[in-house]
Write a structure and sequence with these properties.
By secondary structure, the chain is mainly α. It has one domain: Non-ribosomal Peptide Synthetase Peptidyl Carrier Protein, Chain A. It is built from eight helices and no strands. Helix 6 runs parallel beside helix 7. The radius of gyration is 23 Å and the shape is globular. The N and C termini lie far apart (about 50 Å).
């Protein structure tokens, strides 16, 4: 064993260890919780896109294309839908009324199922609140989609 002070050993046994531990996090910022949590969001956004599209497909191809065209005219491109889902619902509610609520409700229910959470809410509950709650649970609990094509997408 080397005596204290030789080849990188501290003169005092614990001096500086706390500083080294604190600086370790700054050397590897991608290890911090923020980066790790944001890596879950692409899976969540893929799931939103997938289930929104599936719900629209269930309503028919003509309606699906009309809704995507309408949203595009309102400034929400198809690629923006997962990140702006609350705006999508609000925009559709202004135009379609209760029909938009059916689309949003079915999408949110399918998303809950996708992340293996029970959709224990009613049709009249606040969908934006339920959507935000789901997003927070996905990040906090590190949930991944159950559909293989969404889970392992590049």
């Amino acid at each position: 064993m080397l005596p204290a002070g030789k080849k990188g050993l501290p003169f005092v046994s614990n001096a500086g260890n706390a500083t080294r531990i604190r600086s370790f996090r700054s050397l590897f910022p991608y290890v911090s919780g923020l980066f790790m949590r944001t890596t879950l969001m692409p899976g969540f956004q893929l799931a939103v896109d997938y289930w929104f599209d599936r719900v629209l497909q269930g309503m028919g191809g003509t309606i699906r294309e009309w809704i995507y065209d309408f949203l595009n005219k309102k400034g929400i491109s198809r690629e923006d839908i997962p990140g702006r889902f609350e705006d999508v619902v609000k925009t559709l509610m202004e135009r379609l009324g209760s029909s938009a609520r059916v689309i949003a409700y079915r999408t949110v229910v399918e998303l809950y199922k996708e992340f293996a959470l029970p959709p224990n809410f009613e049709y009249d509950d606040s969908l934006p609140d339920r959507f935000v709650y789901l997003k927070e649970r996905v990040v906090a609990d590190r949930l991944h989609p159950t559909t293989p094509s969404l889970r392992f997408a590049a």
